[in-house]
Design a protein that fits this description.
It is built from eight helices and 17 strands. The radius of gyration is 20 Å and the shape is globular. The strands form three sheets. Strands 11-12-14-13-15-17-16 form a seven-stranded mixed β-sheet, with helices on both faces. Strands 1-4-10-6-7 form a five-stranded antiparallel β-sheet, with no helix packed on it. The chain is an alpha+beta fold and 375 residues long. It has two domains: 106 residues, Sandwich (Immunoglobulin-like), CATH 2.60.40.3120; 260 residues, Zn peptidases (Aminopeptidase). Helix 2 crosses helix 8 and helix 6 packs across helix 8. Bound molecules: (2-guanidinoethylmercapto)succinic acid (GEM) and zinc ion.
Length: 375
Amino acid sequence: MRISSNFDSGNIEVNNASSPNDIRLSIKKDKQSDFFQWFHFKLETTAFLSHKLVITNLHQSAYPDGWKNYQAVASYDRQEWFRVDTEFDGDSLVIQHTPEYEHVYYAYFAPYSYERHLDLLAWAQQSPVCQQQFLGETLDGRDMSMLVVGEPEEGKKVIWVTARQHPGETMAEWFVEGFLERLLDESDGVARQLLEKSVFYVIPNMNPDGSVRGHLRTNAIGVNLNREWATPSLASSPEVYFVKQKMIETGVDMFLDVHGDEALPYNFVAGCEGNPGYSPRIKNLEDKFKQNFMLATPDFQDSFGYPKDKPGEANPTVATHAIGQHFDCLAFTLEMPFKDNIDLPDSAYGWSPARSKQLGEDVMIAMRAVVDMLR
Ligand code: GEM
Ligand code: ZN
C-alpha cells in the first residue's frame, strides 16, 4: 500500500499506512501559515478491500465546522469525483471506502489543475471576442493571466470577475469555466446581449502558486490575498497588486469575487452593507441581482449566508469591500459549498464541478437583470 501527494495541488502527511484498516493521515499547513484544510492525495492498494483512512488533528484546521456532515470526494479517472462515506468525530475525519481499482485519489473538493487552468486560457483566447493578457508574475514565477471578453468601448459597462483567491476553493475556477463557456457561446442570446452592453475582465485563478502548492487559503509565502486589497504589495501580494492596478485602469461597474465556503451548505453572496459608501442605490442593485439569481436557479438562495456587516464596519482589506467602496459599484463575494446545497442535495456527488459550472452560467441571468442600471 502506498500514499502519495507529490503532484499538482497534492497535500497530505502520512503518519501510518501499515494497515488498510487504520491509515493515519494529517494535512500540511499552507507554507508560512497556520491555515490547513485542503487535502488531495493518491492511494495505491489492493482493490475490493475495505479501507479506513483517518485524517487527524482537524480541531485545529481553518474551519472545523467544515467537517460536520462533510463527505470527502474520490476519483479513479481524475475526471469524475464522487462522494465517499465520511464521518467526523470532532477531531478526526474517517473515510470508509472499498476502492474498485488499485489506484484511487481522494480530495477535499474536485481539484482544478494548473494544466486545466492553462487549457482554459488557451481555449478562451481562440474566441473572436476574447483576448488573453499577462498582468505580471507571481512569487513562484507563474503568470497572472486575465481574459478580456468583449470590445472595450465608451458607454459599455465594465464587469470584473475574479476567482480562487483562496486556492483550495477550486469550485471557484469550475464556476469560471462554466461562466466563460456561456459568455463565449455565440449562439447564446443572454451572452450576446451582455457583450453588446458590457466588457468583461476575468481572472480565472487569482492564486496559481497556492493552487499548485496544495494550499487552502494563501499564496506562496502564506499571505491571505483576500486581506490585501487595501494596500497590496509586489513583495507580499503581487497577485492582488497587478489586478487592482488593472481595475484602476479600466474602472469597475460591477465586481464578482468567487469563493467556496467550508461550513455553510448553500450558495450565497456577501455584499457591501458595511461599507462607508453603501447607499440605497447599491442596496437596490444588490436586491435586484439576488432576486433574479434566485429566479434563474433554485441552487441560489439569500436566506442563509455570512452575518451582515454593521454600517461602516466592513473589513476594507477584503476584495469585495475594497472594490465596492473604491468604485462605488455593485460588488459581491459569491460562495459555493464544499459540502452540498442542502436545499437540493445530490447524494452521489454533493456540490460538484458540474453544478459549479452551471451556476457560472446561471449568474449571467442576474447580470443581465442589472446591467442597464449599474450606473
Ligand atoms: C470570505 S469573505 C470575507 C467575509 N465577508 C463578509 N461579508 N462577511 C473571506 O475571505 O474570509 C470569503 C471566503 O473566504 O470564502
Ligand atoms: Zn475564499
